[in-house]
Design brief:
Largest sheet: none
Number of domains: 1
Number of strands: 0
CATH class: Mainly Alpha
Number of helices: 6
CATH topology: Cytochrome Bc1 Complex, Chain D, domain 2
Order of helices and strands: HHHHHH
Strand content: under 5%
Distance between the termini: 13 Å
Bound molecules: heme C
Helix content: 55-70%
C-alpha cells in the first residue's frame, strides 16, 4: 500500500504537467492556422480586398478545394522557407498575381496567418506528427516502471 502511495506521489506532478502541457502543445498556433486557412479559401476576406488564393491555386488540405490555373501550393512552405514566404507574400511578384495584388497588398497579420497555414500543411505530411502522444506514452511507461520498482522494493 505504501509503495502504491509512493508511486502516485512521485507521478502526480509529472502527470499533471503532461495534462497541462499536452493540450497547449497540440493547440499551438491553431487559431492563426485557422485564420490562414480562412483567408486562403476566401471564407475570410483580405482586408484590402485581394482575391482568395484558392480561386487559382490548388492546396491539399482538409476542407480546401483549390483551382487549377496556378501551381499547387501545398508544399510552398518547404520550398520557400519562413523568410522566403514572407518575401513572396509581401510582393506577390509573379506575373499573373502582380496585377491583382499590386494595389491590394496583404497585411502583415494576413501574411503571418497564411504562413502558419502553409507551415501546418507541411507538418501534416511529415512523419514526426504525433510526437505528443509518443512523449506521453513514454513518460507514462517510465512512471509505471519507477512505481513498480519502488513497490517491489517495499514488499521484497
Ligand atoms: C488570379 C489567379 C491567382 C491568385 C488569386 C493567386 N495566385 Fe499565386 N500564382 C498564380 C499563377 C498563375 C502563378 C504562376 C506564376 C505566374 O504565372 O504568375 C502563381 C504563383 C504563385 C506562387 C509561386 C509558386 C511557385 O511554385 O513558384 C506562390 C507562392 C503563390 N502564387 C502564392 C499565392 C497566394 C498565397 C495567393 C493568395 C494570397 C495567390 N497566390 C493568389 C495565380 C494566382
Amino acid at each position: 500500500m505504501a509503495g502504491l502511495f509512493t508511486f502516485l506521489f512521485r507521478c502526480t506532478p509529472l502527470l499533471l504537467l503532461l495534462l497541462i502541457a499536452l493540450p497547449a502543445w497540440a493547440g499551438q498556433g491553431t487559431e492563426l492556422i485557422g485564420s490562414g486557412k480562412a483567408l486562403f479559401t476566401g471564407a475570410q476576406k483580405f482586408s484590402k480586398g485581394g482575391a482568395p488564393c484558392v480561386s487559382c491555386h490548388a492546396f491539399a488540405y482538409p476542407g480546401v478545394h483549390g483551382g487549377n490555373l496556378a501551381p499547387d501550393l501545398t508544399r510552398m512552405y518547404e520550398g520557400f522557407g519562413e523568410q522566403g514566404m514572407k518575401d513572396v507574400l509581401k510582393s506577390l511578384e509573379f506575373p499573373t498575381m502582380k496585377r491583382i495584388y499590386a494595389d491590394k497588398p496583404l497585411t502583415d497579420e494576413e501574411i503571418s496567418a497564411l504562413i502558419a497555414f502553409a507551415r501546418d500543411a507541411g507538418e501534416k505530411k511529415s512523419p514526426d506528427t504525433g510526437k505528443g502522444p509518443v512523449a506521453a506514452g513514454t513518460a507514462l511507461f517510465f512512471c509505471g516502471l519507477i512505481g513498480l520498482t519502488l513497490y517491489k522494493r517495499r514488499i521484497g
